[in-house]
Amino acid sequence: MSEPFDPTRYDAFVFDLDGTVWLGPDHPIPGALEFVDACRERGASVAFATNAIIHAPATLSAQLQHLGLARPDEPVVTSGTVVIETLRAEGVELIAGVMPDQLAEMLIQADIEVVSPNDVSVDDFGSVGTERALVLAASRGATIGSIERLGRLAAAGHRIYISSKDPGFPVAGGIEPGGGVLFAALTAMYDVDATILGKPSPAYAAVVANAVGGRDRRILMCGDSQRADIGIAAELGVDSVLLTGHSILPISADLPAPTYIAPTLADAPRRHHPEG
Question: Exposed, middle or buried, 72 (CB in 10 Å: 0-12/13-18/19+)?
Fold first, then answer.
């Protein structure tokens, strides 16, 4: 018989946001609050980790606390967190980027100058070097023109970082386009490589592990994206629950397999048995 799901086996739980605990901050998913509270009652640590980049971690934390889903001391990791930590560690001082205003403000606060690719040419941006880089992040303000100009800079040899390759995020009433949509547009025009910093990248995994006290803890990752959430669990070498109720893609044999599956956190997870 399959081993049943036993939450007492874990001393740290990491939750994705969209499609996992809410469909946007005004639409918590029924049962999520009760599941998260039950984890805390058993003495486990709780953290949240999302590839969404439109809000700063502090803003998301406040929204989660308002709904009762988070406590003030519980970490919230975003792909923006990882973008900033990576760029600072690599000595980047100037960014040309297509990104939401919130990420631009966070970069400026981290003493990294931000310019729009619409405002610089390849010659204006300067020579290729460690102090200059490019960022592409999910943004409703993106245009084909701004993505094309960013592509010119990438084709000239400047490093480009992508917040995530998620095609979209489930929200109430539909799908919010993700960074993967913009990246597909860029690579349709230019043959360039990019460094992905969102889930399931090693850089993101390192930040998540630090948020819950280290890789030696017994961690369970819960999320609705097989590529991003189950992928980050595989990167960390930990168990995972794939929540299928709001997933925008079917389970794929070509992606890391979840340990357990369930429609939502309100449902009892069951052991996943990949076909074949």
Answer: exposed
Tell me the C-alpha to C-alpha distance, in Å, between residue 139 and each of 77, 85, 176: 18, 20, 10
Question: How many other C-beta atoms are found inside a 10 Å radius of the C-beta of residue 116?
Answer: 15
pTM of the full predicted structure? 0.91
Q: Which amino acid is at 44?
A: A
Q: What are residue 179's phi and psi, to 5 degrees?
A: -65, -25
Distance, in Å, from the CA atom of 30 to the CA atom of 87, rounded to the nearest integer, reads 38
For helices 79-89 and 101-109, the axis angle rounded to 10 degrees is: 40
38 pLDDT more than 60? yes
Q: Name all domains of the chain by residue range, CATH numbers in brackets.
A: 7-78+200-271 (3.40.50.1000), 80-196 (3.40.50.1000)
For the stretch 19-55, what's the b/e string if a residue is b when 16 or more beta carbons lie within 10 angstroms of its beta carbon? bbbbbbbeebbebbbebbeebeeeebbbbbbbbbbbb
Q: Where are the alpha helices (DSSP H) in the chain?
A: 32-41, 57-66, 79-89, 101-109, 122-125, 144-155, 179-189, 202-211, 231-236
Q: Which two tokens stand for residue 127?
A: 């020579």
β-partners of residue 177 are 168
pLDDT exceeds 50 at position 236: yes
For residue 180, report the phi and psi dihedrals to the nearest 5 degrees.
Answer: -65, -30
How sure is the predictor about 1, in pLDDT bands with cuts at 50, 70 and 90?
very low
pLDDT score of 55 = 86
**Closest to 98 in 3D by CA, of 133, 50, 66:** 133
